[in-house]
């Protein structure tokens, strides 16, 4: 059996482990357009800021590729796919044949056309190790930075640059930073903290023009008409599935590559996982890209298992984010901002003075979301309650407690989690 | 694999499991030194939870899952499963992002705020039985072969 995995990040790693659990013999070829072995992609902001050394970027034990007998092709870009011949085409013109294919190419940063940006020098995106390295290398030339986009990537880029002593302004179109995960109070707490540390956060506005002569940037003009002087622009609006090479192939691409619960695409034998895929959402059942790290691993594992002939089914993507900025930890998961609040019940506790905020979102007797700021201790218990669809009626009153824990769950749930089976001698 | 299980009916809420855990993971491995004199006192990897003033109590700890949610969420690769059994955190590799805290449905990962590192049960690699199990005066903790849940 010949497996090909395009991409070499967390979804690929999940898939390799998934395949090898079942099939120790088959040939696995991993093709990556990057020059690095698998690295902790979210660590690039730590690398930029200097809290992590290059050595610590490696995501896997040193002997991982060897132990799993991976044929690793780095610096190789896949440019085309022929599903009839079961071949992928590489940039140099070579083709490789597969029996089972996994597309785990992740996302490409989305860079909208902004007036005046073409031809400018210090315009960066921030999704790869090389992006971080490039920025770090030019650090002495960077003074004032405008970050376009207050999502996870933008905030992390801002944090890294702040550690290098740069002056930063974040411009976010929504009414709060991290709008997909945070609600207003959580966004406000973190934005306040950032401002206190010298990072400007501008919301409900966007960059319409990059100003300057030649390659030099002198500032940006916002939709509101304001001008912000800067010499560097980071575009962190979001990522788009890296699926351009599938043009002309039969693989169905919507907002991502559409997959079923085995992570298989509409073409038999071709699978997709991670940021490039569009799989079922945990709550709605609708297909949705879910570009978060843990989900990419889970999807990769399911894809690998399915490719090797095993059976495992995706339980649906559940969004979750853990982000700590300026010593304020935040964890959010599930539905945090219901579009139709009438259908939900929302419990909150807040003490904004000490940066504490807790929000629980219920639908009937089920927990569907949580936002925790400050006290994030044991947040995963909430994730478990969501995933396992535990009836919260018996302990509804304890959900906002700072020390909410296993002990508040019904006895049979506690015992199913922690009690021994059978005779205890 | 062998795992630590809890019999909540016989737990007396004495917290000796936590004391034993802290001691075992200290430099001196002596309780008084560990609690009073060492610069970085470890934090316990098991958590005794109590309700109604201690009428109900139980000690919770890592399940060393077959498919650990913490490992899958870990962005630095600090969490690995070894020999298909014990799940450990490489503290040097940990960046303190708390993704594992977000993911673990058992609430079995602690935040060490002084060192900004995640902290979890390692099943006491230097011992035959985990220290918490040996320390429990009422045998409320059981170390035996079993599944994750």
Produce a short descriptive summary.
The complex is a heterodimer of chains A (425) and B (149). Chain A has 425 residues and is an alpha/beta fold.
Key traits:
heterodimer; A: 425 residues; alpha/beta; FAD/NAD(P)-binding domain; Enolase-like, domain 1; 5-stranded parallel sheet; 9 helices; 26 strands; 21% helix; 28% strand; B: 149 residues; alpha+beta; Alpha-Beta Plaits; 2 domains; two-stranded antiparallel sheet; two-stranded antiparallel ribbon; 5 helices
Structural write-up:
The complex is a heterodimer of chains A (425) and B (149). Chain A is an alpha/beta fold. Chain A folds into 3 domains: 2-107 and 240-307, 3-Layer(bba) Sandwich (FAD/NAD(P)-binding domain), CATH 3.50.50; 123-237, FAD/NAD(P)-binding domain (3-Layer(bba) Sandwich), CATH 3.50.50; 327-418, FAD/NAD-linked reductase, C-terminal dimerisation domain (Enolase-like, domain 1, 2-Layer Sandwich), CATH 3.30.390. Chain A has 9 helices and 26 strands. Chain A has helices spanning 10-22, 44-49, 64-67, 129-137, 152-163, 184-196, 293-307, 380-387, 411-418, and strands spanning 2-6, 27-31, 70-73, 78-82, 87-90, 95-97, 100-103, 107-109, 123-124, 144-148, 167-172, 199-203, 207-211, 219-222, 227-229, 232-235, 239-241, 257-258, 270-272, 277-280, 287-288, 320-325, 328-334, 345-351, 356-363, 366-373. In chain A, the strands form 7 sheets. Chain A has a 5-stranded parallel beta sheet. Chain A is globular, with a radius of gyration of 23 Å. Chain A starts with a strand and ends in a 7-residue tail after the last helix. The mean pLDDT of chain A is 96. By secondary structure, chain B is of the alpha+beta class. Chain B has 2 domains: 1-61 and 124-143, no CATH class; 64-120, 2-Layer Sandwich (Alpha-Beta Plaits). Chain B contains 5 helices and 8 strands; from the N terminus they run E-H-H-E-E-H-E-E-H-E-E-H-E. Chain B has helices at residues 16-24, 31-37, 69-73, 99-103, 131-135; strands spanning 2-6, 47-51, 56-60, 79-82, 86-89, 110-112, 117-119, 141-145. In chain B, the strands form 4 sheets. In chain B, strands 1-8 form a two-stranded antiparallel ribbon. Chain B has a two-stranded antiparallel ribbon with strand order 2-3. A two-stranded antiparallel ribbon of chain B has the order 4-5. Chain B is globular. The mean pLDDT of chain B is 95. Chains A and B meet through helix 7, strand 22, strand 23, helix 8 and helix 9 of A and strand 2, strand 3, helix 3 and helix 4 of B.
